[in-house]
Specification:
5 strands; 3 helices; two-stranded antiparallel sheet; alpha/beta; single chain
């Protein structure tokens, strides 16, 4: 015998700010396309209570140097592309990423501090390697 279950509906009164990441050449940028996130008028998974105007997107995290604390499964999956952030960004794009998250390290090799020039070079290499929008995180 079928059972009818009514889902209680509560109206969430908030709205998530909508943000567009990246800028195309027409917008004065260098990215091949933009990604817009946010804009939801409901909590996650409650699409029947409000609007979710932008689909979820996938950002793949890469680093400016090969991480020494990642799972061996991830290291095996990415392989030698982890040795170069530009090559890694290209591989992430080919894997279907919508965005690239470049994680800048505090040190280059565990002892030598990463300089501003090092960080700038890594960011520039990734920007030139892919047209995807890029998020850059740094230490501190």
């Amino acid at each position: 015998m079928p059972v009818t279950v009514e889902i209680p509906v509560e109206k969430w009164m908030g709205k998530v700010l909508e943000v567009t990441l990246g800028a195309t050449a027409d917008e004065g940028g260098t990215r091949s396309h933009t990604v817009t996130v946010g804009g939801e008028t409901t909590l996650p998974f409650l699409h029947f209570e409000g609007e979710i105007p932008n689909p979820p997107c996938i950002a793949i995290e890469i680093a400016d140097r090969r991480p020494d604390d990642w799972s061996p499964l991830l290291v095996e999956a990415w392989g030698d592309v982890m040795d170069d952030p530009a090559t890694w960004a290209k591989a992430a794009e080919e894997a279907g990423a919508d965005l690239i998250l470049l994680q800048l390290s505090l040190t280059k090799d565990g002892d030598t501090p990463t300089t501003a020039a090092d960080a700038r070079a890594a960011a520039r290499a990734v920007l030139e390697a892919t047209g995807l929008p890029i998020l850059i995180f740094g230490p501190g």
